[in-house]
Amino acid sequence: MAMGRTVLHMPSGHTGVVAKLHPTVLFNISDSYIRRNDQQERVIGTLLGSISPDGTVEIRNSYAVPHSEQADQVAVDIDYHRTMFELHQRVNHKEIIVGWYSTGSSLSPSDTLIHDFYGREVANPVLLTVDTAFAEEKVNIKVFVSTLLTLGERQLAAQFHEVQLDLRLIEAERIGFDVLKKTMVEKLPNDLEGLEATIERLQDMIDRVFRYVDDVVEGQVQPDNSVGRFLADTMASVPRISSDAFDKLFNDSVQVVSRFCTRRKIRIQNFSHPLICLKLKFGIGGSIGKETFTTSLFIPSLAAVFVRFLCG
Amino acid sequence: MADGNPPPLRSFAQAAQAEVEVQPLRVVQIEGLVALKIIKHCKECMPALVTGQLLGLDIGSILEVTNCFPFPSRGGEDEDELDTDGANYQLEMMRCLREVNVDNNTVGWYQSTYMGSFQTVELIETFLNYQENIKRCVCIIYDPVRSGQGVLALKALKLSEDFMELYRSQSLSGEKLREKNMAWTHIFEEIPVKISNSALVSSLMTELEPEAPATQCDFDRLVLSTNPFMEKNLEFLIECMDDLSMEQQKFQYYYRNLSRQQAQQQAWLQKRRTENAARRASGEEPLPEEEPNNPVFKILPEPSRLDSYLITNQISNYCSQVNGFAGQSLSKLYLMDAFHED
């Protein structure tokens, strides 16, 4: 007997796949789950994104697809899926189908059928499950790929195994988590309020570093060489400018900026006066030399570097 | 048991015609989902400017925006084809979204802008187009460049009622504007924006928030380089000044012509009068004192004030941006000074 027929072949590849998830997708999925029909228990839909040459799948967008399930039968509205995909392609043709999502907490047998269907659209589709019912009392977001279990020539089953999920919440971070966490935000923070919050956080972090250094010096905490090296690097990245040069630089920049604040006077009167009446006084001040512009560009963003280190 | 007169029954037609009190729009409530989608779309297509449709509900004095979809960007193709394509896209998209229970009600549109230069005649035209079909609509303006500095530059605009009436009647001359006391600040009205999130989404986000004490937002805000932004702003400001001075010249020219024409009219009238006196003296018929066909009496068209108003709006926008940014930079510079104590 040939060995091929009795050996169960379980390929263990595909674990190198990494999936990156953008926050828009999560919001989309939650929204479609909330808006589902009464009889439906879960929502499924298509995932759009891009696949990089090294196998990393970036999931950027999604849309829900109507479906109906009874017992072990499932029917997916394929026309709807195709139409929506075409519409999305017209906006951004770089986003292709990378898989599908489901809002249940566990996989059901009918999922293999749906997965096969998506397997016809893209070579190795991913399945994203988002547990919207919080069955385990914590956030449960998983990404799976499926591999075929073959016994010799026959295909037995499809096995779903999990792949690594990387949540890229940078876009959400840009808006600010405060805005996205609460159920109602009364007023969007303007620039100065935002800056105030940031500076408070910076101060907090600097305090923590001071406390750590003090503790190490007093011997209360074990010194960690890597942390020490980071601190030294950060300190060294502050440019060594002599006090005179720095003062001059500082004063020049402050002058440039404060001229915009204080000397700006614009008086634009109502155009209904029959005589031409537009008086514009915009004082930028005398000498903004080229040198002040270029030198201030060389000051590295010290605070940002400092903060970056503290976040590891 | 008759208890007095029953209330008078109103026919359906009467009830339908009863005036529904229209409450003024006070707040625009956007869902976090919509904000994220707008940001994603605008950022992906930078530096091109893009637009999209807003869907939602109009309730009392709050306009809720619950979903949105982007419009495909136009390549330089045939105008007619584009229009039908665009309309088809919109219909298809709305039909599909209705099937998954998304609000099927258009409440406005969004567009991205570059450094706040969005006050154009096209914006006004689009508003009027939308206004024909929808009672209340807003335009959400998103500035991806300013948002790169850590502030969410999202604002909701609508045209003021008075301005719309004036524009429709095509009378934007100086006198009409003076009558209505309409200054350049009265064209657009900015409406405060609130952001709301569903409970599910807010619980997801709360759970997912990373433990890092600082976010990308903070990094963006603490960047010390002030010059590129300032320079760009000033560049645009100077361009606007140039446009404004051109408009000024147009008005000067118009008024000069007007006064010259009036002088000509006076001169002609004098001549006519002396002629008529001479004719009356010699017993002939006096000639009419008006002659509409004479080019001296032609009415000169007054240039529209709309462009100057719009330019003034833009200038004010740039100035407030510069102001805000300067305030921030000043604080950051002092912070840097404190770091460099010795």
From TrEMBL, chain A:
It is found in: Cytoplasm. InterPro entries: eIF3f, EIF3F/CSN6-like_C, JAMM/MPN+_dom, MPN. GO terms for cellular component: eukaryotic 43S preinitiation complex; eukaryotic 48S preinitiation complex; eukaryotic translation initiation factor 3 complex, eIF3m. Its main location: cytoplasm. It comes from the Eukaryota. PROSITE patterns: MPN. One of its GO terms (biological process) is translational initiation. The keyword tRNA-binding does not apply. Residues 19-150 form the MPN domain. Keywords: Cytoplasm, Initiation factor, Protein biosynthesis. GO terms for molecular function: metallopeptidase activity; translation initiation factor activity; translation initiation factor binding. Belongs to the eIF-3 subunit F family. Component of the eukaryotic translation initiation factor 3 (eIF-3) complex, which is involved in protein synthesis of a specialized repertoire of mRNAs and, together with other initiation factors, stimulates binding of mRNA and methionyl-tRNAi to the 40S ribosome. The eIF-3 complex specifically targets and initiates translation of a subset of mRNAs involved in cell proliferation. Component of the eukaryotic translation initiation factor 3 (eIF-3) complex. This is Eukaryotic translation initiation factor 3 subunit F.
Automatic annotation (TrEMBL), chain B:
Keywords: Cytoplasm, Initiation factor, Protein biosynthesis. SMART domains: JAB_MPN. Pfam families: eIF3h_C, JAB. Gene3D superfamilies: Cytidine Deaminase, domain 2. One of its GO terms (cellular component) is eukaryotic 48S preinitiation complex. Its main location: cytoplasm. The keyword Translocase does not apply. GO terms for biological process: formation of cytoplasmic translation initiation complex; translational initiation. It is found in: Cytoplasm. GO terms for molecular function: metallopeptidase activity; translation initiation factor activity. Residues 273-283 have a biased composition (Basic and acidic residues). HAMAP family: eIF3h (MF_03007). PANTHER family: EUKARYOTIC TRANSLATION INITIATION FACTOR 3 -RELATED. Component of the eukaryotic translation initiation factor 3 (eIF-3) complex, which is involved in protein synthesis of a specialized repertoire of mRNAs and, together with other initiation factors, stimulates binding of mRNA and methionyl-tRNAi to the 40S ribosome. The eIF-3 complex specifically targets and initiates translation of a subset of mRNAs involved in cell proliferation. This is Eukaryotic translation initiation factor 3 subunit H. It comes from Physcomitrium patens.
